[in-house]
UniProtKB/TrEMBL annotation, chain B:
Origin: domain of life: Bacteria
Subunit structure as annotated in this protein's UniProt entry: NDH-1 is composed of 14 different subunits. Subunits NuoA, H, J, K, L, M, N constitute the membrane sector of the complex.
Family indicated by similarity: Belongs to the complex I subunit 4L family.
Coarse class of the protein's main subcellular location: membrane
Name under which the protein is recorded: NADH-quinone oxidoreductase subunit K
Taxonomic path: Bacteria, Bacillati, Actinomycetota, Actinomycetes, Kitasatosporales
C-alpha cells in the first residue's frame, strides 16, 4: 500500500504534462482528462485513508522512498514521501475539494478558448500541493512549496492579456519568494544544526540544541508561512490574486495553498514547542492578521476581495491556534478543513453570481439575487452561516475551539489573544452579513456592463451547482462530524500531540460570548445594509474605511518604500555601472589614447630629427654604462 | 707609435660624420657623412684588434665594409629615385613618413 | 598505446573548423551541415569520455603525456577529473544547439554579397572555440592551458565583432561601431587578465621548475615544494585576476554586457555558457590546487566580491531595457554564486558550484536562445518593443517562461539544486554571507518575471501581432534543453556522482573539511 503514495502525485502530474504538452489536439477533451486524473487521485486518497483506518493509531505512518535526489558529501536529500494522519487529512482535502473545483471549472471556463491549459495548470497545482504535504523532508517540501507558487502564478495570471492580472501574478510570486527565502534559510539552519533536514532527524533532536537556534529556525519558518498564507506583513498579494479565475480563488487562494503555512507550522511543531519566543511571534502574527483581514473584508465592495480579506482573517485564526502549541495544533487543522469547505463554497457561489452577472464583481451592483439564483443563494447562505459560526454548523465548532484554546494559553497573553479572537468573530459576522445582504437581498442595483449588455441573472449549469451543493453539505456537517466524540482530535493527536490548557473561564461562557459577538456583528450589519438601501456609488466613508479599501495602506507603503526605492536604486546602479565601474576602464583607455596622441607628434617625418634622437639615445646609453662602471 | 692616437683619430672622424648627418640637408652629403662614421668605426675595430692581439676586430671590419658597400648601392638608388621625383636632394623635403 | 581520446575530442572540432572554412563560398548549406555533423561527432566523443571515466578511479584519467618544449619543461599533458569531465560534456552538448540556433545568423545580408564567406567563417570560428575550450578543460600542464586560454580570444573576437546582432535600433552603421567597441573591449579586458597571468605562469616556473599541474600540486601537498607566503600570494593573485576577468567577477564585469548585447544570441550563449566557464573551472583547478594557502588567505575578499556580484548583477538586471543585457547581468549574478561556492571551501559549495556551471550553461542557453528567436522575429532587443507575445506565439512564450524559471532557480529545475547547494555550502561556514546571498533569489524572481510580464503578457502590440510561433528547427534546439533542465533538476545524481570525488580531492588539497553539524559535533 505504501507504493500508492507516489501515484497520488503522479496522477495529476501526468495530467499536467499531457495537457500542457499535448497541444490543441486535446482541446475537446482536456477538461475531462484533468478532472478524471484529479478524481483518480482522490479515489487513491480514499483507498489509502481506509488502509490507515485499518491500522492502530500509532502505526499510521507510511513512507515510500523513491530515489536519492541530491547526494553531496554530508548533504543527503531523498525523494521520500511520508503519509501520516496530518498529511492524509490534507490529501483528502486537496484532492476532494480539488476534484469538485475541477468539475465546477468545466462549466465555469466553458467559453474560454484556453480551457485545456487551465486544467493543465490546475493539475500541476494539485501535484505540487500533494508533494508539499507528502514530502518527508523540508527540501522536498520546498519543491512543492515553490511548485504551488508557480501554479498560483500561472493561474492568477491566466488572463494574461489583462495587465492587472499579469501584475497581480508577478506580485504574488515575488511576495511569496520573500517567504521562500525564509524557508531556505530555515533549511540551511537545520542542516548546520542537525546535519539533516528530514522530518525524522530534525524533529526528534530538538532537545540537543540551543533554544536560540530553534527560535531562529522557527522565525524563518514563520516568515515562509507568512508569505504563503498571506499573513501580515506579507499579506499584500492575496487581494490582488483575485484577478485569477474564480475557481482558482476557491481552490488555491482559499481552501488549500494559502493554508500551507499552517501546515508548515503544525508539521514543525516540535521546533516551535521548544522555542517559546518563536511561538509567541506566531500567535502575534496570527492575531494581527485576524483583525487586519477582517477590517479589510469589511470595506471591500468587490465580492472576491471581501472574501479574500475573510480568508486572510480565517487563516489568521489558524496561525494563532498553531502558535498556541499543542493546545491549538489540532484545532488549527480542524478549522483549516472546515474553512476549506465553506470558503471554497463561498467562492464558488461568488463565481456563480459573477457568471450570471456578466462577470460583475462590485457588490453594490448586485442585490435581490436570491430569487434569480436559488441554488447559489442556498449554498452560499449555508457557507455564510458556517463561517460566522452559527450554532452547530462547521465554523461553530472549529472557531469556538480556537477561541477557547486562545484563552487557555493563560495569563495576560491568553486574555489578549482570546479577546482578539472574540473581536474577530464579531467582525466576521459583520462583514459576511454585509456580503450576504448586498448580494442577495435588498433591491436590484444591476448596471449594464461596458458593452451595454443588461445582466440577466440565471442559475448556473449542473457542473457548477453540484460542487456547490457538496461543499455546502460539508460546511454544514463537517464540524459536527469531527466534533462528535472528539474524532478529529483522536485522529490527529498521534502526530501533533495535544494537551488541554487550563482556561480561566469555562467553555460554556466562551461559547456564550462568541454567540453574543455573532449577534452583535450581524445586528450592526443589518442596521447598516439591511434596513437602509445600499447606495450604488460607495460613500466616502470614514478614515478607517478609506484606509481599509486600500488594504490599510500597506500597498501604498510597499509602493513608496520598496517599488519606488527599488526603482531609484536600480536606476542609480545602472548609472554607477556605466559611469563609475565602466568609466574607470574607459577612462584608462582614453588616457592611453591621449598619451599616444601626444607621443605621435614626435614622429615629425624629418630624418634628421630622428637622427638626433638616435644619437641622443646612444649618448645616454654610453653615459649610463660609464656611470654604472663608476659605481 | 701609440695606437691610442689612432683611436683619437677614429673618434674625431666619427664626430665629424655625426655632425654632418645632423646639420647637412643635402642627401648626398648626409650619405657621405654616414660612410665617414662607418669608416671611423672600422678604424676603431682594427685598432682594437691590434691592441688586444685578437683577430675578431679585423673580421668585423670586413663585415662592415660589405654592409657599407651594400648600403651604398641601396642608399644611392633611393637618393636617385628621390631626386627624380622631387628634383631636390634635400632630406627635409622628404618628410611625408609621419603619422 | 591506447587511443588518445582526449586529443581526439579537441582535434576533431579543430579539423572540422579548418574543413568548414575551406568549403567553397557558394555551398553555404554544406558548410552548416558539416559543422553540425562535426559538433555531433565531438559530442559522441565527449560521451565516450564520460562513459570511460570511472568516478571511483584515479584523480586524472585518460591521461596523455608527450614532451613538447623540453627546454622549458613544457609538456603536452592532458587528463580529466570529474569536474573537467562534466564541463567537457556540457561544452560538447551545447555546441550543436548553438550551431543549430545560429543556422541563419551568418547568411549574407543580400544575395550575391561579396563579403568574405561569412557563413563558413561563422561556423568555423564556433568550432575553433569549441576545440580550444575543450583542450583548456583537459590540459594538466599550466603552460598548455595558458596558451589555449588566451588563444580562445582570437576566434571570439571575430565572432563578436564580425557577426553581430542585426537587430539594432540605430541602424547598421551604429551597430557596427558598437560591435567593434564590444569586441575590442572583450579583447582588451581578457588580454590584460591574460598578461598578468602570463607573468604569474613564468613566476610559477621560476619557483617550481616545471609546468606540470600534477607534479606541482603533489609537491605542494606533501610539502616538498615550499613557497614563501608572499610569493604564493602574488602568484595566486596573478592567476585569479585572469580567471576573475573571464568569469567575470565584479568589478571586472563590464565587458560581458557589451559583448553579449552586440553579438548574436548563439554567440552570446557561447560566451557566457561555454567560454566563461573556463574561468570558474580554472579557479577550481589551478588556484586551489597550486596555491592552497593563498586561496584560503584571499577567501574573505573573494567571497565579498562574489556576494557583490550576486546582488549587484541582479539589481542591474532589473534596471535593464535591453533583453540581452538583462540576461548578461543575470549571468554576472550567477557567476557570483559559482565563485562563492568555490571559495566557500565546503564540499556542498564546490559540488554545487560545479553543478552550477553545468546547469547555468543549459539554463542560460535555453533562455538566451529563445530570446534570440524572439529578437530575430521583431528586429529589436528593447523590452519595451514587445508585449502580448503569449497570445500570438504561445509555445515561444512557454519555452521562454521555462527558461526564465530555470534562471530564477525554481525547484524541480536543474539550477535550483546547484544554487541551493552553493547557498548551504556557504551558509555552513559563513552564515551572514549565505543569508545575504539568499536575497539573490528574490531579485532573480524580480528580473525574470518583470521581463516575462513586459514582453509576453498584456495587450498584443500591433508590431508583434503577426509573429510566427517557434519553427521546427527552433523547437529542436529548445526542446532537449528543457528536457535536460527538468531531468537534472529531478535526478542530478549522475552528475554529482562524477563531480563528488573530484571535489573531495580538491578539498583535501586545500586541507579543509566540512564543518560538522552542531548536534553531531556535540556528541
Amino acid at each position: 500500500m505504501d507504493n500508492l503514495i507516489a501515484l497520488l502525485i503522479a496522477a495529476p502530474l501526468l495530467g499536467a504534462a499531457v495537457l500542457l504538452v499535448g497541444g490543441r489536439r486535446l482541446d475537446a477533451v482536456g477538461h475531462w482528462i484533468g478532472t478524471l486524473l484529479s478524481t483518480t487521485s482522490f479515489v487513491l486518497g480514499l483507498v489509502l485513508f481506509a488502509g490507515l483506518l485499518g491500522k492502530d493509531a500509532e502505526n499510521r505512518t507510511l513512507t515510500q522512498h523513491l530515489w536519492t535526489w541530491i547526494p553531496v558529501g554530508g548533504f543527503q536529500a531523498d525523494v521520500t514521501f511520508r503519509l501520516d494522519q496530518l498529511s492524509m487529512t490534507f490529501v483528502l482535502l486537496i484532492t476532494g475539494v480539488g476534484s469538485l473545483i475541477h468539475l465546477y471549472s468545466v462549466g465555469y471556463m466553458e467559453h474560454d478558448e484556453r480551457r485545456r491549459r487551465f486544467f493543465g495548470y490546475l493539475n500541476l497545482f494539485l501535484a505540487a500541493m500533494l508533494l508539499l504535504v507528502l514530502a518527508d523532508n523540508y527540501l522536498l517540501l520546498y519543491v512543492g512549496w515553490e511548485g504551488v507558487g508557480l501554479a498560483s502564478y500561472l493561474l492568477i495570471g491566466f488572463w494574461q492579456h489583462k495587465p492587472s492580472a499579469a501584475t497581480a501574478a508577478k506580485k504574488a510570486f515575488l511576495v511569496n519568494r520573500v517567504g521562500d527565502m525564509g524557508l531556505s534559510i530555515a533549511i540551511m539552519l537545520m542542516f548546520t544544526t542537525f546535519g539533516s533536514f528530514a522530518f525524522g532527524p530534525v524533529l526528534s533532536h530538538t532537545g540537543d540544541t540551543s533554544e536560540g537556534r530553534l527560535t531562529a529556525i522557527g522565525l524563518m519558518l514563520l516568515l515562509a508561512a507568512c508569505g504563503k498564507s498571506a499573513q501580515v506583513p506579507l499579506q499584500s498579494w492575496l487581494g490582488d490574486a483575485m484577478e485569477g479565475p474564480t475557481p482558482v480563488s476557491a481552490l488555491i487562494h482559499a481552501a488549500t495553498m494559502v493554508t500551507a503555512g499552517v501546515y508548515l507550522i503544525v508539521r514543525s511543531g516540535a521546533i516551535f514547542n521548544a522555542a517559546p519566543d518563536a511561538q509567541l511571534a506566531v500567535t502575534v502574527v496570527g492575531a494581527v492578521t485576524l483583525i487586519f483581514g477582517a477590517i479589510v473584508g469589511c470595506a471591500k465592495d468587490d465580492i472576491k476581495k471581501a472574501l479574500a480579506g475573510s480568508t486572510m482573517s480565517q487563516i489568521g485564526y489558524m496561525v494563532l491556534a498553531a502558535g498556541l502549541g499543542p493546545i491549538g495544533y489540532v484545532f488549527a487543522i480542524m478549522h483549516l478543513v472546515t474553512h476549506g469547505f465553506f470558503k471554497a463554497g463561498l467562492f464558488l457561489g461568488a463565481g456563480s453570481v459573477m457568471h450570471g452577472m456578466n462577470d460583475e464583481v462590485d457588490m453594490r451592483k448586485y442585490g435581490a439575487l436570491r430569487t434569480y439564483m436559488p441554488i447559489t443563494f442556498v449554498t452560499f447562505g449555508l457557507g455564510y452561516l458556517a463561517i460566522i459560526g452559527f450554532p452547530f454548523l462547521s465554523g461553530f465548532y472549529s472557531k469556538d475551539a480556537i477561541i477557547e484554546a486562545a484563552f487557555a494559553k493563560g495569563g495576560t497573553q491568553g486574555w489578549i489573544l482570546g479577546g482578539v479572537a472574540l473581536l474577530g468573530a464579531a467582525i466576521t459576522a459583520f462583514y459576511m452579513t454585509r456580503v450576504m445582504l448586498m448580494t442577495f437581498f435588498g433591491e436590484k442595483r444591476w448596471q449594464p456592463d461596458a458593452q451595454g449588455h443588461e445582466p440577466h441573472p440565471h442559475e448556473s449549469p449542473k457542473t457548477m451547482t453540484i460542487p456547490m451543493i457538496v461543499l455546502a453539505v460539508g460546511s454544514v456537517f463537517a464540524g459536527f462530524f469531527f466534533h462528535l466524540g472528539d474524532r478529529f482530535l483522536h485522529w490527529l493527536e498521534p502526530v501533533t500531540g495535544h494537551s488541554e490548557g487550563d482556561s480561566p473561564i469555562g467553555a460554556t461562557t466562551i461559547t456564550g460570548a462568541t454567540l453574543v459577538c455573532l449577534v452583535v456583528g450581524v445586528g450592526i450589519a443589518w442596521a447598516r445594509y439591511g434596513r437602509k438601501p445600499v447606495p450604488v456609488v460607495a460613500p466616502r466613508g470614514s478614515l478607517l474605511t478609506r484606509a481599509a479599501r486600500r488594504d490599510l495602506l500597506q500597498d501604498d507603503f510597499n509602493h513608496v518604500v520598496l517599488v519606488r526605492g527599488g526603482e531609484h536604486l536600480t536606476r542609480s546602479l545602472v548609472y554607477v555601472d556605466h559611469t563609475l565601474v565602466d568609466g574607470v576602464v574607459n577612462g584608462t583607455a582614453a588616457g592611453v589614447g591621449g598619451l599616444s596622441g601626444r607621443l605621435r607628434r614626435v614622429q615629425n617625418g624629418f630624418a634628421r630629427s630622428y637622427a638626433v634622437s638616435m644619437f641622443g639615445g646612444a649618448a645616454l646609453l654610453v653615459a649610463a654604462t660609464l656611470l654604472m662602471r663608476a659605481v | 707609435m701609440n695606437p691610442v692616437n689612432y683611436l683619437y683619430l677614429a673618434a674625431l672622424l666619427f664626430t665629424i660624420g655625426a655632425t654632418g648627418v645632423l646639420i647637412r640637408r643635402n642627401a648626398i652629403v648626409v650619405f657621405m657623412c654616414v660612410e665617414l662614421m662607418l669608416n671611423a668605426c672600422n678604424l676603431a675595430f682594427v685598432v682594437f684588434s691590434r691592441m688586444h692581439g685578437n683577430l675578431d676586430g679585423q673580421i668585423i671590419a670586413f663585415f662592415t665594409m660589405v654592409v657599407a658597400a651594400a648600403e651604398v648601392v641601396v642608399g644611392l638608388a633611393i637618393i636617385v629615385s628621390l631626386f627624380r621625383t622631387r628634383h631636390s636632394a634635400s632630406v627635409d623635403d622628404a618628410s611625408l613618413m609621419k603619422l | 598505446m591506447s587511443f588518445p581520446l582526449l586529443t581526439a575530442t579537441a582535434a576533431l572540432p579543430a579539423l572540422g573548423a579548418v574543413a568548414t572554412a575551406a568549403v567553397p563560398a557558394a555551398r553555404r548549406t554544406a558548410a552548416k551541415w558539416l559543422a553540425l555533423v562535426v559538433s555531433l561527432a565531438t559530442l559522441a566523443l565527449a560521451i565516450t569520455v564520460l562513459i570511460r571515466f570511472d568516478p571511483g578511479g584515479d584523480r586524472y584519467q585518460l591521461t596523455e603525456s608527450h614532451a613538447w618544449i623540453a627546454d622549458f619543461g613544457v609538456r603536452y599533458e592532458l587528463g580529466v577529473d570529474g569536474i573537467a569531465v562534466a564541463l567537457l560534456a556540457l561544452t560538447a552538448l551545447l555546441i550543436p544547439f548553438i550551431i543549430l540556433a545560429g543556422w541563419n545568423d551568418a547568411d549574407p545580408l543580400e544575395t550575391g554579397s561579396r563579403r568574405w564567406r561569412p557563413t563558413q567563417g561563422f561556423f568555423a570560428l564556433i568550432l575553433a572555440v569549441e576545440a580550444m575550450v575543450v583542450i583548456s578543460f583537459e590540459a594538466t600542464d599550466v603552460f598548455l592551458f595558458y596558451i589555449f586560454f588566451e588563444a580562445m580570444l582570437i576566434p571570439m573576437y571575430f565572432l563578436i565583432g564580425g557577426f553581430g546582432d542585426r537587430a539594432h535600433e540605430h541602424g547598421e552603421a551604429a551597430a557596427s561601431t558598437q560591435r567593434s567597441y564590444a569586441a575590442v573591449k572583450f579583447l582588451l579586458y581578457n588580454l590584460v587578465g591574460g598578461l598578468i597571468m602570463l607573468a604569474a605562469v613564468i613566476g610559477l616556473y621560476v619557483v617550481a621548475g616545471n609546468f606540470s599541474l600534477q607534479e606541482i600540486a603533489q609537491a605542494r601537498a606533501n610539502g616538498s615544494l615550499h613557497m614563501v607566503t608572499g610569493t604564493e600570494r602574488w602568484l595566486f593573485l596573478g592567476f585569479f585576476f585572469a580567471f576573475a576577468v573571464k568569469a567575470p567577477l565584479w568589478p571586472l564585469h563590464t565587458w560581458l554586457p557589451n559583448a553579449m548585447q552586440e553579438s548574436t544570441a548563439p554567440v552570446a550563449v557561447l560566451i557566457t555558457a561555454v567560454v566563461d566557464k573556463v574561468g570558474t573551472f580554472a579557479m577550481l583547478r589551478f588556484c586551489l590546487q597550486l596555491f592552497p594557502e593563498a586561496s584560503k588567505w584571499a577567501t574573505p575578499v573573494i567571497l565579498v566580491l562574489a556576494l557583490i556580484s550576486i546582488v549587484y548583477g541582479a539589481l542591474l538586471a532589473v534596471g535593464q531595457r535591453d533583453i540581452k543585457r538583462l540576461v548578461a547581468y543575470a549571468s554576472i549574478s550567477h557567476f557570483g554564486f559559482i565563485v562563492m561556492g568555490i571559495f566557500a571551501m565546503t564540499s556542498q559549495g564546490q559540488s554545487g558550484a560545479t553543478l552550477y556551471m553545468v546547469n547555468h550553461g543549459i539554463s542560460t542557453a535555453a533562455l538566451m536562445l529563445v530570446a534570440g528567436f524572439l529578437i530575430s522575429r521583431r528586429g529589436s532587443r528593447l523590452i519595451a518593443d514587445y508585449g502580448g507575445v503569449q497570445k500570438v506565439a504561445p509555445v515561444l512564450a512557454g519555452t521562454f517562461l521555462i527558461g526564465g524559471l530555470a534562471t530564477l532557480s525554481l525547484p524541480g529545475l536543474a539550477p535550483f539544486v546547484s544554487e541551493f547547494l552553493v547557498l548551504v555550502g556557504t551558509f555552513t561556514r559563513y552564515p551572514v554571507i549565505g543569508v545575504i546571498a539568499t536575497f539573490g533569489i528574490v531579485l532573480a524572481a524580480l528580473y525574470t518575471l518583470v521581463l516575462y510580464q513586459r514582453t509576453m503578457t498584456g495587450p498584443v502590440k500591433p508590431e508583434v501581432s503577426a509573429m510566427p510561433d517557434l519553427r521546427v528547427r527552433e523547437l529542436v534546439v529548445v526542446g532537449p534543453l528543457i528536457v535536460l533542465l527538468i531531468l537534472l533538476g529531478v535526478y542530478p545524481k549522475p552528475v554529482t556522482d562524477i563531480v563528488d570525488p573530484a571535489v573531495r580531492q580538491t578539498m583535501s588539497d586545500v586541507h579543509t573539511t566540512d564543518p560538522k553539524p552542531e548536534v553531531e559535533a556535540a556528541k
